[in-house]
Records
---
Amino acid sequence: MKRSIVGTFVAAATAAASLAAGGAATAVQPAAHRAPVVFVHGYLGSDPVWAPAKAAFLANGYRSDELFGFVYDYNTSNETSARGLAAFVEKVKKDTGAPKVDIVNHSMGGMVSMWYVKELGGSTSVGHLASLAGAHHGTDVATLCTVMSPSCAEMKPGSAFLKRLASGDETPGDTRYRTWYSPCDGVISPFFSTRLKGADNTLVPCVNHVAFLTDGGVLSQVVAFTKGE
């Protein structure tokens, strides 16, 4: 990607890391009325970028041991990462005793999440899927980094990976789907690539790509969605 985009992602991850000093907590069976939440980062991301989102969930009654960050090699094929997500979700379910999880993803994490849900049968294990600026139908920006990694090549509009995801039902199973997208995104191009047929697609007036991870209004909506409100 362009140097400015890479720099923005790295800066956001570094800033969020300072907010995540608490570290991972031991998994305990969650309250019966809600599912544990699995966060799936995007290209150049890692678990620390979710610090603001986790803070929003904690402020709304969740416990730290109900919040799980899935970390994967963003340079590897998204299909490989999706298989890793499938194993991670099964472990979260086993450790917490929960029959399902909720997934919150960002950017390329949307591709990882949707491959898991659609191609690996994950819809039976996911109650709610919230996607922030998900690259569900790719982005033209990916043409700048296709030589860097298989995952970025898959993010290019028209790739075999994206054609497979777009075929048939884009929102399978009983999972509830909601996306957030904005004309000010700057990374997902065209910005409406995030929308999924059958999902509750929420247009945000002007939030840039990285700001989806920190915007209080958006994060409040994400928490309410996963709680079924």
---
Amino acid sequence: MSFDLVALPALSRFTVDRQEPLRGDLERLARSWAKARVIVVDRFGRTLVAERGSRVVEREASDFGAVPPGDAVLLGEQDGVAYWGVPLAEDETADATPDARVWERPDPTEEPQWLDLRSCGAFLDATGAGLFTTAVALFHWHRSARFCARCGGGQQAVKAGWTRVCDRCGREEYPRTDAAVICLVHDGGDRMLLARGTGWPEGRYSVLAGFVEAGESLEACVAREVLEEVGVTVRDVRYLGSQPWPFPRSLMVGFEAVGDPDEPLRPADGEIAAAKWVTRAEVRRALASPGSVEDLKLASGASIAYRMIESWAAAD
């Protein structure tokens, strides 16, 4: 039985106009800066989030000077207001290390917190989720693209942070996105295949995923990855949806596929710690009350994996 996603994945939501033509219009950028709004992202990929994790804290552009800083990135425009991202200086980072705990939504009386997308992406409003996701992706790219891939020369950001140009040879570079597939394998009925990666916490399970190789289609990648990771041959591969996953630069392309639960599971050595088939009833209980099903903790709400599992569980 096929199914569809019950809603967009959390980090696929985006409401502002990306305004590609505006990026190279220096005069208009300067005019719009006066009333622009800015979100600040630290080196750990966190921003300040308020209202029980539902709102990214925005600052006035005037806090950063009369013109956009050289390391600022234009995120888009909405209702005549431009939105920018600015990286927080490393010596201004709020904490020495990010909070790696599984985050629970804070009490409404708590002060704003520095949180990353994994922690708060599921709770943010659509505008905040889109702005924060784009900013994290762009800043990851800028940190990794400091030198030209052709000649090794230094690169400078232009076009509001969406292009880097080599100082030596003039080569232009644009933000990179790596395609990855993520597949919910089920038996066509009431069972789903889940796996736990090596190094994951005990009991944490999710659907299978992997990067697309050169010269490979998305559907072929699904079949290859599932076979390599758990030894199951799949059929009826069907697209569900996609989500950016800027850790550091992936686009997760979601699929469902049908597999045979009688086929022996062979977890890939060094990659998959365990794999198992679970029933729809078990998944529904685990979603409704996390921790209530032994050895079954599911993906976080910010991931497309969560939306896929939730959608399969909701199907009749």
